[in-house]
Each structure stands twice: as C-alpha cells, then as structure tokens.
Design brief:
Elements (H helix, E strand, L loop, with lengths): L1 E9 L5 E6 L7 E4 L5 H13 L8 E11 L5 E8 L1 H13 L5 E5 H7 L4 H13 L14 H7 L5
Parallel strand pairs: 1-5
Antiparallel strand pairs: 1-2, 1-3, 2-6, 4-5
Length: 156
C-alpha cells in the first residue's frame, strides 16, 4: 500500500508548512508501507527522516482520508499534526534542518499547485481536518416557525 502523508508543522511565527518529497508521485511525503500497517510505516519513516523517534501519541491529528489519490501509483492520503507540547519541542528544529529531497511549502502554496480535479477536493478535505474540523463541536438546528419569529428571519 502506498501512502501520501501531509504533515503540518507550525513554526514559532505561526506559519504552517508542509514537507514535500520533490521526487514523490504526489504532493506530500510519499512512501510505500511494504506490508506494514500504515501508521507504523509512517512513524518509522518520520523517525528516519527527522532523526528523532516518533510515536502515535505525539500527534494531535492522525487521520486517513478516502478516496485514493489518482497518483501513479495510487496512494491513500494521511494527515498528521503534532500535539502542541511536541510542536514546541521540534517544529523550529525540524524546519531549520536541511533535508535531502524535501521542499517546504505553505498550505496555500500547495493548494495553488494542485490541478483542478478530484485530488484537489481530497486535499481540501485534508486541510479541513488539519485545521481542526474533527475537533470542533458542530451542531445543526432545524429552523421552525417559532425560531424564525424569534430570529426575525422573515422580516425584510
């Protein structure tokens, strides 16, 4: 199974950046899990890339999205974001370390670089997850006549 990982790293100035594998098949960090569970393969990959041991609990968001990306070969998109206490320890250190074959890009820059299509929609969902939509308390309310009167929705 192939995985594309979007790892959101916020620096001390609050700028959100993502490492991109310049030789990868997609926008993000591209890896082949080689039969391992994806989360285990991702932790191993990140530990080797950043020369620091990572575990699943280091991440506040760690989520897979579907459908498969239409990359060649196709891959599942995973998103990850460090917990605040881990971010403070490693973000600036990671961002200042030059990594072979890795380019840093902002979220806006990545979105601008994507061609219109299905993959762009999947990346848009990924950014919503990274922005915290899974952590929000979202509720829907049916608007009946009584609520309309109270909110004065029918008045000009």
């Amino acid at each position: 199974m192939n995985v594309t990982l979007l790892l959101l790293i916020t620096d001390s100035r609050g700028v959100m950046q993502l490492p991109i594998d310049v030789n990868g098949a997609s926008q993000g960090l591209f890896l082949d899990t080689a039969g391992q569970p994806p989360s285990k393969a991702i932790m191993k990959y990140l530990s080797e890339l950043f020369d620091r041991e990572f575990v699943r609990d280091d991440f506040g968001v760690f989520h897979s999205l579907s459908p498969m990306l239409s990359t060649k070969p196709s891959s599942v998109l995973y998103v990850a974001r460090f917990k605040p206490e881990i971010k403070e320890l490693v973000a600036d250190k990671i961002l200042s370390k030059p990594l072979s074959g890795i380019q840093w890009i902002t979220m806006a820059g990545l979105m601008r670089s994507l061609a219109p299509g299905r993959d762009r929609v999947v990346y848009n969902k990924a950014f919503q997850v990274l922005a915290g939509v899974l952590e929000g308390d979202i509720a829907a309310l049916e608007v009946d006549d009584e609520v309309r009167k109270r909110l004065k929705l029918d008045e000009p």
